[in-house]
């Protein structure tokens, strides 16, 4: 949509500003898209980290339980000697 002004200076000003504004708007849309992509990546990384943290906690709990069971077996074996 083209805007026409009767004042030539105003028309020149308009014609020089509108393309710049359109360019800025396009760049901002690109930046917005990149921010969205980065946020999605960050969220996936957080989910992965949470999952790994849960796996680590499970591993450590199982290791503690196994160590406790071994200690009990050792105590029982020592008591039986």
Structure description:
- The structure is a single chain.
- The protein is built from one helix and no strands.
- By secondary structure, it is mostly helical.
- The radius of gyration is 34 Å and the shape is rod-shaped.
- It starts with 7 loop residues before the first helix and ends with a helix.
Chain-wise SSE layout:
Blueprint: H1 8-80
Count of DSSP helices?
Answer: 1
- Beta percentage is under 5%
**Main sheet record:** none
Structural class: mainly alpha
Spatial shape? rod-shaped
Overall mean confidence score, pLDDT = 93
- Report how far the terminal alpha carbons are from each other: 98 Å
The helicity comes to over 70%
Order of SSEs: H
Pick out the low-confidence regions: none
DSSP summary, beta strand count: 0
The radius of gyration over CA amounts to 34 Å
Brief sketch in words of this structure:
By secondary structure, this protein is mainly alpha-helical. It has 1 helix and no strands.
